[in-house]
Amino acid sequence: MKKIDTIIFDLGGVLIDWNPMYVYRDYFDSVEKRNYFFEHICTPDWNEEQDAGRSIVDATQLLVQQYPDWEQPIRDYYGRWTEMLKGPIHETVTILRELKATGKYKLYALTNWQADLFNIALVRYNFLHWFDGRVVSGEEKMRKPFPEFYQLLLTRYEVNPEQAIFIDDNLRNVQAAEKEGLIPVHFLSPEQLRDALLSFHIL
User: Fold this and answer.
1) Which domain range does residue 39 map to?
2) pLDDT tens string 51-100
3) Could you tell me the CA-to-CA distances from 188 to 22, 85, 152, 177 in Å, in that order?
4) 56, 85, 114 — which closes off a domain?
5) Whose CA is closest to 15, among 111, 144, 80?
6) Are the CB atoms for 121 and 10 separated by under 8 Å?
7) Is the pTM of this model over 0.85?
């Protein structure tokens, strides 16, 4: 392994605590109804279409037309989206701060995030401006885990994947990054991430 000079972070679930359950945990009158909503209506696949560039307005209207009986919970998905954005995962932000302070590493973000909603995060969280570069799926009209999204970052910022660590809480995305030659770290907790970086003699 060549000397590591680059660290690439996912954002949601790694540096930022985002979770629809902050809105929907007690929203419905039964767990079964809540599960149905996420498994059949506002599904992960539907959400990822917005990550890949589809308008949240178009996405909402599409579902309201298909599931008129579920109109209010569908509208609340993006209407109350800021309530899902709980805040920084402070221990991971501390790790990012420490990495930046060393001056030894290029730091990048590679995130699946709808473009307009990402602007809200940019206003809220100063640490998102610490990166040497960011690649946001909604702006690029492509997303993880597709190879071209990883390659976009590698090409744009002239990153050698053999010298770059990729951190993500989604195992699917980590495995895809590994196929592109990046050094994978599956994020489970800030403590586990710190241990992983220490094992690479980082920090």
Assistant:
1) 19-85
2) 999 999 999 999 999 999 999 999 999 999 999 999 999 999 999 999 99
3) 20, 19, 26, 17
4) 85
5) 111
6) no
7) yes
